[in-house]
Each structure stands twice: as C-alpha cells, then as structure tokens.
Amino acid sequence: MLNIDNLEINCMDLLQNLNKEQLAAVTHKDGPLLIVAGAGTGKTTVITQRIAYLIEQGKVKTDEILALTFTEKAAGEMEERVDRLLPMGYLDLWIYTFHGFGERILKEHAHEIGLSAESRLLNEFEQWALIKKNLDKFSLDYYRPRGNPTKFIHALIKHFSRLKDEDISPAEYLSYADELRENLDNMLTGSKKKGSRNFHPSSEYKQFSISNFQTDDKKIAEQEIIRINEVANAYHVYQQLLLDNDAMDFGDLINYTLQLFRTRPKILEKYRQQFKYILLDEFQDTNWAQYELVKLFSAPRNNLTVVCDDDQSIYKFRGASVSNILQFNKDYAKAKQIVLSKNYRNTQNILDLAYDFIQLNNPNRLEWEMNKKTRKQENKKTRKISINKKLIAEEKGEGEIVVIKGSDVHDEIRQVVEKIAELKTEDKDLNWNDFAVLVRANESAKEICATLEVAGLPYQFLASRGLYVKSVILDVVSYLKLLDNYHENEAVYRVLNIGIFKFSRKEIMDFNYMARKKAWSLYHAAKEAKNYFGSETGKKIDFLFNLIVKHTALARYKNISEVFLAFLHDSGYLKAITKESEQASREKFSYLNQFKRRIDKFEAGSDIKTTKVFLEELNSEIEAGEEGSIAPDIESGPEAIKVMTAHAAKGLEFKYVFITSLVDKRFPTIRRSEKIEIPEALVKEILQAGDMHIEEERRLFYVAVTRAKAGIFFSWAPDYGGKRKKKASQFLLEANLVKPGVDKTKKSQAEIFSKAKPKQKEAGSDQVKNKLPAYFSYTQLAAFNNCPFQYRFAHILKVARKSKFTFSFGQTMHLTMQKLFMLINEKKGLGQGSLFKEASDKDSKGKVNISFDEILEIYKQSWIDDWYDCPEQKEEYKKQGLESLKAYFNLHKDNWPAAISLEQGINLKVGGYRIFGKIDRIDDLGGGSIQIVDYKTGQPKTKDKISKEDKEQLLIYQLGAGQALDKKISNLQFYYLDNNSDVNFLGSQKDLEEMEEKIIERIKAIEAAAKNNDFPAKPGPLCKYCDFFNICEYRKN
C-alpha cells in the first residue's frame, strides 16, 4: 500500500465491482486511450475509478490529473464521486468544464498575453447589448436592414461563436476575405493558384464557370465577396470591442487559453509537467478548438483518455464535432480502444429498438467507420480495427414498448396522463419521480403541464428559460417599475393584484373605473380612492403607498439589490411565501434567488447600479428576445413527474419514459441552417456527407429512447390544430413502430380525470426531498448549531437576505489582503497556482519592496460600495480601513509574512462526511512548519475572550490541512485587521478529536432534519440578529 499525499486507498475495493472492460479501462497504464461507452454502461464510474486508481498507484498526486467535461452538473457529480473514493482530505482536484478550466488558467496567466485577469465574462444578452450600443462601428450594410437595424445581431453573435469553435481568428477571416477579393475569377471558375484555398464562399456559387459567366453572375459573386468582407470586419470589430471593454465571451475562454499555450512555451511546459494524465468525458461533444487545446497540453506524454459515444452526440448547434472521434484515431494511431457494451439501465428489447434505429445513420457512425477500416503497422502488415456497439442488457426481462395514437393533441396527452396514472396505481413501489415526459421543444410541454394540472398529478417542468415570466418575478419587476414610474398602469395593476396587499377584485375594478372616468392614471386613482372608500380599503391603500414612498426614496440612491430585498422583506412578500405549500414556496424562493443572481451580475458589471438603470437593461434584454435562464434542480423537491426536453434528459434515467408529439416537422424538426454560415474553406473539422440535421435528430431520438429502464411510450396524433393533418414522425416509421391497431377508444375528459386524479393525497406523494450539499462548510454547521430553522431558510430554501455594510467592509479588507500578498508573491517569483511546490525551491521569505501607494491602489480597486446607510458612514469606514492598512504596512514593510498559499481551498473527510473551506492565508514558518491565518474585521478579541465556538473554524482548517498537507501545523491565528492584533493558539489532539465528534454529530442532525423535513426553531436572545427575523414565525423579541 502506497501513501500518496496522506491518501490510502484500498485498490481491491476500487476494482472489485468492475466488469472486464471497465477494469481494463480503469487500470490502463500509459498512452492514449479511447473508451467507447454506450448508454448506461457506467462511463462515469470508469472515469472516477480511474482517477482514484491512478492516485492509489502513486502515478499522480491529486493536482496532477485533469478531468474535463461539459456541464457544471457533470463536473460536480464527478468531483463528488471521486471525493467519495478518497478517504482523506486533499488540496485540489482539477475537475472542470472546458470553460471553467480556461477561466482558471486565464485568471492566473491572462497578463502574459496582454489581457486583464479581471475581464468580465459576457452572456449572450450582454454581447447583444455591446454590439447594439456600438452598432455604428461595425460598418454593416447587408446585415443592417433600415427598418430593423438590430435584426441580425443574434445571428452575428452565433456566427462569432461558431468561428471560435473552429479556432478561426479575426485575422484569418479577414485574410480569407482579402483573398476572395483578389481572386474573383478563381471563385467563379473554381480554378486555383498553387497553394491557394477553395475560394468558393459558399457552395451555391460553384455553378458558375467561364462557359456560362455572365454579368449578373459577376454581380452576384461581387456582392457575396462584399458580404463576407462585411462579416469578417464585424468579427474583427467585435473582438476589439471586447478587449476595449475588458470583457470576454465563452469562446474566448478556450481561444485565449490556446493562444497562451501557443505563444508562451514556458507556461505550456508548466502545465504539461503538472498534468501527467488527462481524462475527457463526452468527447463526442467537443468542438475543434477544445480538441486542439487538449492535444496541445497532453503532449508529449499523451496520457490522454477520452470517453465517447458518437450515437449520443446531440450538440452540433453548439459547435460539437463528432468528427473529432475519427480525428482522434488519426492523431493517435496506436491508441488503445475499449468498448463498454454491458448496459446496467435498460431492458434488451429497448436497447435493440434503439440500436436498430440508429443504424440508419450509417455510414456516418464510428462503428461503421472502424469496422471497414484497416491500418498499416510498422511491419507493413494490416489488421482489422473493429468494434461492436450493440449493447447487452444486464437487466433481465422485457420492457414495455407502446405507441399511443390520439385523435387530436388533447386526446393524445389525455391518454399519456391516463397511462401514467394507471402504471402508478398498478405498482405501489413506483413513485412520481419514476416518470418522465420528453418533448422536442419547450412549446410542446404546455399542453402536457396543463393536462397534468387538471388531472391532479404532481409534475415539475424542467425548462431552462422563462424566468422573467414566472409569476413571482413579474410581481417583483412590476413593483420596481412602479418605483421608477408611478404612472405605468400595467405595473400598478399587477402590484394591486399581489396577494399581500389584500385588495379585492371589486376594489381593483372600482379603481380602474375611477381612473377612466376621471382620466387619471391608475396609480393616482388608487391613491385618491382612500377618500371615496371605507376605512378598511383606506388601511390597505396606506400600507401600499407608504411602502412605495419609502422604496422610491431608496431607489434614487441605493443599489437595485437593496431595493429588491427591501421590498421582499418590508412588504411581507417573503413571509407570505413561507406560508405556502412546501413545493410552491421552494419553487418561488428558487426563482427569487435566480433573479437575485441576475441583479448581482448587473451590479458587478455596471458603474451605475440604480433601479432605473437595471430596469433599462432588463427591458433591453427582453427586447433582445431573452426570457431569463432558469437552473432547475431535478434532485430536490417533492416527488413529481418530470417534463423536459429530450436534450435536457441526457445523462438521466427513468423507469418509464413518454416521448410525445412524434409528428412530422416536430420530431424531427425542420432543418434550420445558420443564418450566417462559415465559409467551407475555413472549416477545420472533417465535414461528413449526408443529411447532418436528420442524423443529429436521430441521435437525439436515440438518447430519448435509452433513458427508459422498463417502458418507453411513443405518442402522436394527426390533429394539432390548423388546417392540415399531421403525419406520424418518420422516426416512428423508421423504427417500425407505427402499426395498425394502435388506436384507442376515445374517452371523455371527465372519465379520464376521474380515474387519474387521486381521491385523496397518497402517502408520501408530497414528501419533500431535501437535497443535502456534497460538501458542508463551517458556516452551515454553525448556522444549524445556532438554529435549525435558520439553517432551513439559509441553506435549504436559500432565501434572499439583506446584506450589511459590515459585510461589505469585511469583504473589502479580505480582498485587499489577498491582492497584497499576491503582489508580494509575484515580486518573489511565486505563482498562486503551485505555491507549495515553488516555495520549496525558492526563498519564500526575503525582503520585498512594496510601497504604500501600491497598497492604496489595491484598496481602491477592492473597495465595495454597497449597503452603507449614508455617505458619511461609508467615508468613516473607508478612512478606518486606510488607517488599518497603513498600520499593517508599517508593521511588516521590512519583513512580510511568508505566505505560501492564499484563499486555499481545503477538503476534509470526517466520518465519511466532507467539509470544504477556504483558508485566507497559509504562512511558511520555516523548518517544514506552517501557520494558518484567518482575517477578522469588527470588534477584536483577546485570547482570554476567545470561546470554544470561536475556535471551531480554525480547528476545522487544522484538521483539513493535517490530512492534505505534508507540513507540520505549528500555529493557528486570528488576525484582527481593525487594530492589527492577533490571537494565536493550536488545537491539541483532544481538541481535534472533540471537533471531529462535533462535526459528525451536527451533520447527522442535519441529515435527520432533512430526512424528516423537520428543522425546529431555537428562539432566544440571538433572534434579533438573525437575517430572517422578519419572516420567522418563531422569533423572540
């Protein structure tokens, strides 16, 4: 047994449950490896077990292996599963999305290629707004129609994104455009000069030749060249705008990382040395630029493992290139290949249906390509390279495969709902989470959700868009609009209808009547109504208008986040939500939290953070076609039938799956080509022959089918409204699923719903599933210890809460200290990325010349302006921070602490539980020993005033550092920045054992509370300091 970084892993435990192919993949030694992993074959198990195996074998430390995947959810799940396999704590696991990896690299090295590490990452709306604001700089003609000048902004953004996917720079595009201009005759005739490219900007112009060359042809070609020049110039202008505004888009995270590695060989070598092994999940979803990046830093070792299934490549619209799999075999001709074909999810007949269907994508499938392919070996002999992707089910028995045909869309969905209710009634072991209804597009889900609602069956619609049209957000936005403009009648009407204000329908109708009669605004009519109605109505009017006056004053000079939270708390809106059903309140809190994150993003990127400016941006976003993104959480909340798109279902599994609306032009959809296509000559991926759109749709259908464990139901109807009857989807025909006799007798709505709707609530049907975090933090443990009900608000419901100026000041000081020591280490030649390693080779102490002017500049950059009560208070704290920093400078200017890590993440394992924390600073004390430093602002304490509870945070850090670091921990320090005093101590073995016991005890209590959904309140003197005082029914004054 090897001991690597204090990690001891039992190799046999890791390998004992793997099948032959999985075992071969996990224990593969060195060199490139291609793992073809079909649906349900345990690919995530293989990746995570391989990471743990490589660590156990002593081949890597935890920060010397890189795993990349495509979604934050997948990266989080992978990290969680690897973490479970590592019995001790550790410092760093590099498990990221591609974009997350690029972001981390650029934060460390952006300055090396002339970029700012603080560049803002723009979403699509922010890109749209940037282009709209600077539209005149783009010199557009073709793509700027006079009647609608912003019409093509989205198309341009999509085009720029695809260019970055293909690793095409503005310079390369402009060069191509120039070549077209210089070679008009070549373009028209198809002839080429030696070494020239294909000068056809698009295939439709290849028809022209000298024999039929006419004046009109030349005009068309000239216009096409002008168009391409216009787009190439627009790409150049856009990229320059990003640079001028210290901004990046998501494509830049990959392309600038590529540029960094290509132009800074020293940095490339640093990461080549660090990452001894690289694992890439969902390889079929990589684009050209991402694959180029991986190839670049995996060389020369080429210990590169890629896991893929070309039959599940469904993201071509995002730039995914299934041809990368074929390219991998060319780039790594001697790569080992392993096929995972044992399926642990589906029954054999469902697998056979899916496999037979996907054969229609031949010859553009990996299996077909490799089975016909031969390779020449060094001895000039040939060998057949073949794979078999037919999956073999471990699950015995047959699943249900049923086609449901309705007379119209209502009858179709009625039968789907009936079948779900029937299955649930027949099998008492089923729960609602076992059912999924999949649609090709969100629009098709509306009828399903409405029918489930009427039938009384619990459901969850997992849409990724539509935040801004959720009822709770419309309420909040309407109120904010009212503060900005009292006379916006639609906003006033919405506010009057909010339940907390208790206006009756008749009262609102009377207000409207008065407004029309007197030619008043609705706001004025409601305000004046106090003089015309009784005292009860008057009280309601007073309550609302007093709030409006108070919040209007706030909106003039406070940030939008403060106004937003003031409304939620002062009005009683949050308190009202807490009194709704568990499912409804959780959903509303989730939407409010996501809207708060939208506000936070606005404040981070805007100099003026007022309500007015935020509403202007929000209106522009809606004008640009945005609906607000939603991050649904499928794992928490009560049991419910899941309704989602087939794309969203990838990676999930359900006992029974219903695929609806299987009619022509809905699934598969009509091909929609890109409005601005990349010229073929610039495309770097291998372009396949055939109908790429229909092949992608088939892969999506394959993914949908393979989600079903025990039953797959396909539904369609000939009538979806409109004059024309619908045909059954060609996929039903191709899969031999449409047969005579599938029609069912139509039943009345009343009959089906009397059967589907439960007579009474089923036991457990509203059972709330509280999702516990993968990692606990000290803050969470302390909150639960203070009051479990507070923990519920903060960490289960995640209720948005008001911040305080003391938090802003504390964060300012922490950030200033972090940047100060980053500057110190930079001057010492130490980089934050691998300080522990670099500090052992260099003198981490030593004198460093830092001027107070440099600290002052850092302080100005780090200052957080939010939540102060008044300008005088803000200036008072700004002065206090300056004086503290001046004193700190005078204390340490001749001998700065030897910081070897800043904001160091640490993972602690205690009793099978995981705790994550961030240490402000770790100092080298010499002789292999370190001290852990935690900054504090606020009232300083002395050693005799530090309680056991106060020490808990640093004791947890001591435990974590003791597990993860090969260093002696000699001191724990609270450093009080206000007066530059410190308190030092060190946990004894007994202290640490007691702390471990407390951690286990508290987490077990949290688990029990979560399981029973019972978080009892602990009313007491501390209630008045609680963030949730105003919405807590148990509070004690």
What's the topology here?
Elements: H1 11-15, H2 20-26, E1 33-37, H3 43-56, E2 65-69, H4 72-85, E3 94-97, H5 98-109, E4 120-121, H6 124-133, H7 153-165, H8 170-182, H9 184-189, H10 215-244, E5 247-248, H11 250-263, H12 265-274, E6 277-280, H13 288-298, E7 304-308, H14 323-331, E8 336-340, E9 342-343, H15 348-358, H16 366-371, E10 374-376, E11 382-384, E12 392-393, E13 400-405, H17 409-426, E14 435-439, H18 445-455, E15 459-461, H19 471-484, H20 489-496, H21 505-518, H22 522-528, H23 535-557, H24 560-570, H25 573-578, H26 582-605, H27 611-623, E16 637-638, E17 641-645, E18 654-659, H28 692-705, E19 708-716, H29 730-734, H30 749-756, E20 768-769, H31 778-786, H32 788-796, H33 805-828, H34 835-841, H35 852-862, H36 871-892, E21 899-910, E22 913-926, E23 929-936, H37 948-964, E24 968-976, E25 981-985, H38 989-1012
Parallel strand pairs: 1-7, 1-8, 2-3, 2-6, 4-5, 6-7, 9-12, 13-19, 14-17, 14-18, 15-17, 18-19, 23-24
Antiparallel strand pairs: 10-11, 16-20, 21-22, 22-23, 24-25
What does this structure look like?
Residues 1-9, 199-213, 374-380 and 740-765 have low confidence and may be disordered. The protein has five domains: 11-115 and 252-340, Rossmann fold (3-Layer(aba) Sandwich); 122-245, no CATH class; 397-464 and 635-756, Rossmann fold; 467-623, PCRA, domain 4; 805-1004, Lambda Exonuclease, Chain A. Helix 11 runs parallel beside helix 13 and helix 33 (805-828) packs across helix 35 (852-862). It has a six-stranded parallel beta sheet with strand order 3-2-6-7-1-8, with helices on both faces. By secondary structure, it is of the alpha/beta class. The chain contains 38 helices and 25 strands.
